[in-house]
Specification:
Layout (H helix, E strand, L loop, with lengths): L7 E3 L2 E3 L3 E3 L15 H11 L6 E8 L19 H12 L4 E7 L7 H4 L4 E2 L13 E2 L2 H20 L4 E6 L4 H6 L14 H4 L1 H14 L5 E6 L10 H14 L3 E5 L17 H8 L6 E4 L5 H9 L5 E3 L2 H5 L3 H8 L2
Parallel strand pairs: 3-4, 3-12, 4-5, 5-8, 6-7, 8-9, 9-10, 10-11, 11-12
Antiparallel strand pairs: 1-2
Length: 330
């Protein structure tokens, strides 16, 4: 049997195959961040047939200040649980596991979107988009930690099989992780261990909110692909620390350049980073990026690039792609 169709038991969560629908922004939420009928119909279409082992719902903002863009889903208050629960049922009704991603945009947004001043680890212009944020105080950081924990509790209450902490694509936690945007000289800045202190506080708070047995994922923007930014060795070191802190699955993507790799356009273009991380940890690793053909998935699995392969934009264009791919290897 091809690897793509083999199950993977990973402690707290079991995957029926190796194909993942990754968190892709569809911008179909209401102005106040509620899941809409358009959102439900979109996911129903993509999940039809139950060909994915897992679907990770697009990044949901945990506070108004952390909203990234118009049409984004909110997980910032209890009034959103009902809509999120409907979405979880749509995904799980197809036989696919459902995880919801939690995010704070930090400086990767605008005041027009949030109605608030930009916040970030340091007053440095975001390399991807946005202006110069105000430097977050320790009290600000504590509030963000609490907001992630509260959001995780809502995700669990809504019936999701797990939650994912977003630290990629130049959003807030990626900004702390990257030496390009984190110039702090306190316990949250400087060496790598300090730059991921906020991550460890969030992981601890989330774990307390959802319990020891509930799956918690983390999406890591492994490399910045910019001079002076994070490199693969930094990602490997961070991944080991996150595993020790209790993360169950690592979802590897790009950093300050967003979800592209300017140095590699081949299928699985974050493969070098995800493979190095997979070889350093014992928890499952997801790799997403540039997969277009059925053969790409199996080739990446055979090469040991990751345990699970995410395919998003190809499926956005062709809802039948996953079904054809799974059937191709039966």
């Amino acid at each position: 049997m091809a690897i793509i169709n083999t199950p993977l038991a990973a402690g707290k969560i079991t995957f029926k195959n190796r194909l993942v629908y990754p968190p892709i922004t569809i911008a179909k939420a209401s102005p106040d961040g509620k899941v809409t009928e358009d959102s439900l119909e979109y996911y129903q279409d993509k999940m039809r047939g139950g060909h994915f082992s897992l679907a990770i719902v697009e990044h949901c903002y945990i506070t108004q200040q952390g909203k990234a863009s118009a049409g984004q889903v909110s997980i910032a208050d209890d009034s959103k649980i009902q809509g999120l629960a409907k979405l979880a049922r749509v995904i799980k009704g197809s036989g696919t596991k459902a995880v919801v991603q939690m995010n704070h945009a930090g400086s990767c947004t605008t005041q027009e979107v949030t109605g608030m001043k930009l916040a970030g680890p340091s007053p440095v212009k975001n390399p991807r988009q946005g202006g110069v944020p105000e430097e977050m105080t320790k009290a600000d950081i504590s509030r963000v930690v609490s907001a992630f924990a509260a959001a995780a509790a809502r995700g669990k209450a809504a019936g999701y099989d797990g939650v994912e902490i977003h630290s990629a694509h130049s959003y807030l936690l990626n900004q702390f992780y990257s030496p390009l945007t984190n110039l702090r000289n306190d316990q949250y800045g400087g060496k790598l261990e300090n730059r991921i202190s906020i991550h460890l506080e969030i992981i601890d708070a989330v774990r307390k909110a959802v319990g020891r047995d509930y799956p918690v994922f983390l999406r890591l923007g492994a490399c910045d692909y910019l001079p002076g930014g994070n490199k693969t060795q930094d990602a490997v070191k961070a991944a080991r620390i996150f595993e020790d802190a209790g993360i169950d699955v690592l979802d590897i993507s790009g950093g300050m350049c967003g979800y592209v790799n300017p140095e590699n356009k081949a299928p699985g273009y974050f493969g070098a980073e995800s493979k190095a991380i997979r070889e350093a940890v014992s928890i499952p690793v997801i790799s997403t990026g540039g997969v277009k053909e059925a053969e790409d998935v199996e080739a990446l699995l055979e090469a040991g690039v990751a345990d699970l392969i995410g395919v998003g934009r190809t499926v956005m264009k062709d809802s039948a792609w996953a079904g054809r791919t799974i059937a191709f290897y039966r």
